[in-house]
Amino acid sequence: MRHQLFNIDTALITDRCVVRRFREGDGKAFYKLLDNNRDYLLDHFPYLMAEAAKNRKDAESFVRECIAEWLLQRRYAMGVWHNETTELVGFVQVFNLDWGVPMGELGYFIDKELIRQGIMTEVLARVVRFAFLQLELDKLVIKTLVDNYASQRLARRVGFSREGDLRQEYRLPSGVLVDLMRFGFARETYGE
Predict the structure, then answer these.
(1) 9-33, pLDDT tens digit by residue?
(2) Any domain includes 3
(3) Percentage of the chain with pLDDT > 70?
(4) CATH number of the domain bearing residue 95
(5) Which of 11, 4, 13 is nearest to 137 (CA)?
(6) Residues in Cβ contact with 5 at an 8 Å cutoff, skipping those fewer than 6 apart
(7) pLDDT greater than 90 at residue 41
(8) 23, 32, 100, 123 - which has most CB atoms within 10 Å?
(9) d(CA 123, CA 181)
(10) Residue at 133 is within a domain
């Protein structure tokens, strides 16, 4: 365990959102978010849909696993809560952590009603800062489907650079293998 991570922030503030660690009882709100975005998420986050979107109990179990993994320093999963509505509107996580480098991968989505409003840009910028300055990671990566242009633009907007393509790296729920595009961001190039 990395003792310096015992006192990191569990809530990050942006202009329009609070990005915070999940708490017991957040499963109901998380299930609602997943259910409202089911069609999009089935293609982009099938593992998440399989684990958490069957019913509210599974969503609550997923939330509690996220809490445990945070405490065990295995994954830092957070809900994105909108300041005005106080509703859960997104999800972001630093996962696939390799403490030997140290590096991690970012995964994220926002409610379909809030796409292209700049909310996820401010959320990711804040999470990148958290990952570099508090988690003390030296590198972050984002992997997107090659046709997910919105996510690729978002990655570039917050400072990531394209590193290459990963051929037949991801299996869609239909069984088809597709390519991913990998983006990276090194802490040495991060300027607050």
Answers:
(1) 999 999 999 999 999 999 999 999 9
(2) no
(3) 99
(4) 3.40.630.30
(5) 4
(6) 73, 134, 135, 136
(7) no
(8) 123
(9) 21
(10) yes
DSSP letter string, 91-119: EEEEEEEETTTTEEEEEEEE-GGGTTSSH
pLDDT of the residue at 192: 65
Overall domain count for the chain = 1
DSSP 138: S
User: Where does the chain show beta strands of DSSP type E?
Assistant: 11-13, 17-21, 76-82, 88-98, 103-110, 139-145, 161-171, 177-186
Query: Nearest 5 degrees, angle CA 23-CA 116-CA 185?
Result: 70
Task: Read off the pLDDT of residues 52-85 as tens digits, 9 standing for 90 and up.
Answer: 778 899 999 999 999 999 999 999 999 999 999 9
The DSSP bridge partners found for residue 79 are: 20, 91
> Has residue 80 been placed in a domain?
yes
| Segments forming the whole domain that contains residue 61 | 10-189
pTM of the full predicted structure?
Answer: 0.93
The one-letter amino acid code at 158 reads V
One-character DSSP codes across 17-32 = EEEEE--TTTHHHHHH
2 part of a folded domain: no
Q: Which two tokens stand for residue 29?
A: 């709100």
Polymer length in residues for the chain: 192
SS3 171: strand
